[in-house]
Amino acid sequence: MATPSVAFSGSPIDRSDNLRADPEALAGMMNWKARLLALDALMPSLDDDGRLMWTTLADAPEDAELVFLGIDRSEGGEKPCFAAVPPRGDASPRMANPQLWALMATLDPGDLATYGGARSLVDWHARHRFCAQCGADTKIAKGGWQRGCEACGAQHFPRTDPVTIMLAEHEGRLMLGRGKGWPEGAFSALAGFVEPGETIEEAVQREVFEEAGVRVRDVEYVASQPWPFPSQLMIGCHSHAESDELTIDYTEMAEVRFFTREELGSALAGDGPFRAPPRHAIAHTLLHWWLEK
């Protein structure tokens, strides 16, 4: 079965890594042809057609750091693309801004991917202005794909945190959970960060056992998704549970249940018996993938 497509992937912008380490080339692109992604802090700004709004570098806030997103060749020609680092990053929970989710729901896949990548990058810069090694100020480098400390020479790179998100199947049913603090009736695939010294398979097995008390085997990769809240790589997997007897960790989970194929289909259609993950989330994609396989 083909790898399913996921939201926040497929940006039309060429990252142009070869230009990042060439200060003269980058400086030569910072002219009237260059485009600046219009952001209100970390919120996307849309034009009259509902697309991401692009302005010129003249609209960048005074003294703002600029990051090079890459080259857009989607409409002919070559348009260098930049984004400005906001004064502050975003430490709020990912679902805390309904306006953002409403705006993202209107974006086409390419714009959504472009926004997601830019948001992750400028948010990282806003939250990493000081050196983790010595505490001194850091300066932007390599077009925004690095920060350097002039005091101790340390180099810092944009962070991406790997997270496993997994389906656990047992005799034709899937295990889903509702995290603590989630709305009543909202269920999704179990998920957790990959810890140091773990493989993806080990992380899947550990997380399912920790949260649900069930051992899983035959872990297989399905798809991945860049998730810009703030900057994670969601690694979607499928596994087989050796039992359906649950021992739930109620410090993390409010509920864990197994659902039938019919129940999953009804939920994805909006007819219950639970609220399915939003379509932007890879969990939504994984449920569709399982129903179709």
Tags for this model:
293 residues, alpha+beta, Nucleoside Triphosphate Pyrophosphohydrolase, 6-stranded mixed sheet, 7 helices, 29% strand, globular
CATH C-level category of the largest domain: Alpha Beta
User: Oligomeric state of the chains?
Assistant: single chain
Instruction: Write down how many β-strands occur, each being a DSSP E stretch of 2 or more residues.
Output: 16
State the separation between the terminal residues, measured CA to CA: 7 Å
CATH topology of the largest domain: Nucleoside Triphosphate Pyrophosphohydrolase
Report the principal-axis shape. Answer: globular
CATH architecture of the largest domain: Alpha-Beta Complex
Report the major sheet. Answer: 6 strands, mixed
Structural class: alpha+beta
Written as H for each helix and E for each strand, in order along the chain, the element string is EHHEEEEEEHHEEEEEEHEEEHH
Amount of helix: 10-25%
Task: Provide the residue-averaged pLDDT.
Answer: 94
Q: Count up the helices.
A: 7
- For CATH, the homologous superfamily of the largest domain is named as Nucleoside Triphosphate Pyrophosphohydrolase
